[in-house]
Design goal:
The chain is an alpha/beta fold. It is built from 17 helices and 20 strands. The strands form three sheets. It has a nine-stranded mixed sheet, with helices on both faces. It has a six-stranded mixed sheet with strand order 15-16-20-17-18-19, with helices on both faces. The longest helix is centred in the middle third of the chain and has 16 residues, at 292-307. The radius of gyration is 23 Å and the shape is globular.
């Protein structure tokens, strides 16, 4: 056990997915652990009782007061840096780590091999890319897991009984903010668009936290050629000597890039004489689904895998074996010659832009909680693809007004209801607008909580409504 934690007074900020494992691990390492939590609901009390039975102190309903004697705070990633707890910690000289930082420092516990991390961040596409990467690594015969912001605790991965050869790690901007010493083997930033600015304070601060993923990289910093901001983050990073910048593009790749040539994913980064040679990795049809933004995800995953020495055959086999999670540009059914596609996970304009770009003629179902977003650029870019639009949710007027300004010829159905049954009516209206060969696309560009528990429930409601059409 690392002696640095024995007898140390550590405050864990927040219960939940990250806080409970952090408290258990730290207690097991001999620390005096106090958990503070803003909420005092039934779930929190259940978690508190579990920890208190181990000997952990839990304070519910007060996440702002710094417990006396605290020497270290380990915080849940979503807690804002402006919270009074962290202000008090700064004044007292108490360091603040996230659970990712704790996991990083606990690698190699009990003398075991510390598995390298291949890390992924970006505004959109993180989970899919990490899952693709894990599938490729498994196809190469490596012991691996997709962990981190994907919903699987990094702490469990580094302190559990399973030993890994390499980890595929999804990291959010929140997690990166609280992980100052993280140094990945290789990392990728998929894209950058305004998101979570209420938490970070500015786009510049958000980008800077995303860029932390490149700090100290050993082998490759993978960036998006089409998104200059990601390349700028590579240029600003302090990496180890010999670490390379590797781009991915949907076009023909240049040297030190991965890209697409005549329906093939190809590598001109991890080959001999990359000025003249390229290695075929897979066919575009091996990517599921082969939408442009998903091909970009596959190229980023392939770049990280190739940086780790994985063969071209394993890239192909891993992509073929990959099945995307539900509600991510998922084909539900064809009814009367019209395709119905569920991309409920498209909860912001950047994700929806990519989704809309995947189809030629679309009846678009959109709306929900806008989270401060504007829709003019999104509508302008998609206007020529829209057969029609059906709008639902609390902030649908913002999308309706953008359509009126930039696509006045597109017929719009505005459903003035926010109950869950509105989805059935939305699908029925979309069917009325659609023609054979069209795609009815649920890509809301908004959060779901005005009508649904989460984007999963929203997508399930869409799929059920589509099934009723075909019944």
């Amino acid at each position: 056990m690392p002696s640095e934690f024995t007898g140390k007074h550590v405050t864990v900020a927040g219960l939940g997915v990250s806080g409970v494992p952090a408290a258990k691990v730290l207690h097991g390492l001999g620390a005096h652990v106090t958990v503070v939590n803003d909420g005092d609901d039934e779930r929190a009390r259940t978690q508190a009782a579990e920890l208190e039975a181990l000997g952990v102190t839990v304070r519910l309903g007060d996440g702002d007061t710094l417990p006396e004697g605290t020497e270290l705070i380990v915080t849940a990633p979503g807690w804002k840096p402006t919270k009074p707890l962290f202000t008090a910690a700064g004044q007292a000289g108490v360091p603040v780590w996230g659970d990712v930082e704790l996991a990083w420092r606990l690698r190699g516990l009990d003398g075991r091999k510390a598995a390298p991390w291949l890390a992924v961040t970006g505004t959109n596409g993180k989970t899919t890319t990490v899952q693709m990467l894990a599938s490729i690594l498994k196809a190469a015969g490596l012991r691996t897991a997709a962990v981190g912001n994907i919903g699987v605790s990094l702490l469990d991965a580094v302190t559990g009984d399973t030993e890994y050869d390499v980890l595929a790690v999804e990291l959010s901007s929140y997690q990166l903010h609280w992980a100052p010493s993280l140094r990945a083997h290789s990392a990728a930033v998929l894209n950058l668009a305004p998101d979570h600015l209420d938490w970070h304070g500015s786009m510049e601060a958000y980008a800077a936290d995303k860029g932390r993923i490149y700090e100290g990289n050993r082998v490759a910093c993978v960036y998006n050629v089409a998104d200059k901001a990601t390349e700028d983050l590579v240029r600003a990073a302090d990496v180890e000597e010999g670490c390379r910048a590797v781009g991915f593009t949907l076009g023909t790749p240049g040297p030190s890039q991965l890209g697409v040539v005549e329906g093939l994913l190809v590598d001109r980064a991890f080959v001999e004489d990359r000025q003249k040679n390229a290695q075929e990795l897979a066919e575009v049809s091996d990517v599921n689904p082969p939408a442009p933004h998903n091909i970009a995800n596959a190229l980023a995953a392939a770049g990280l895998a190739r940086a780790f020495g994985v063969s071209a055959a394993a890239v192909r086999d891993g992509l073929r074996a990959f099945t995307p999670d539900a509600h991510r540009i998922a084909h539900v059914a064809d009814v009367d010659g019209v395709a119905y596609v569920d991309d409920s996970k498209a909860t912001n304009t950047h994700a929806t832009e990519a989704s809309l770009a995947a189809y030629e003629s679309i009846v678009w179902i959109a709306g929900g909680l806008a989270k401060g977003a504007t829709f003019d650029d999104l509508v302008t870019g998609a206007a020529k693809r829209l057969r029609g639009a059906v709008l639902i949710g609390a902030d649908r007027a913002l999308i309706r007004e953008a359509l009126a300004r930039h696509a006045p010829e597109v017929p719009v159905v505005d459903l003035d209801r926010t109950d869950t049954g509105a989805m059935l009516q939305a699908v029925q209206e979309a069917r009325r607008l659609a023609r054979p060969g069209d795609t009815v696309l649920l890509a809301p560009a908004c959060a779901s909580m005005d009508m649904f528990t989460n984007y999963n429930q929203r997508g399930d409601a869409f799929a059920q409504a589509v099934r009723e059409l075909g019944a």
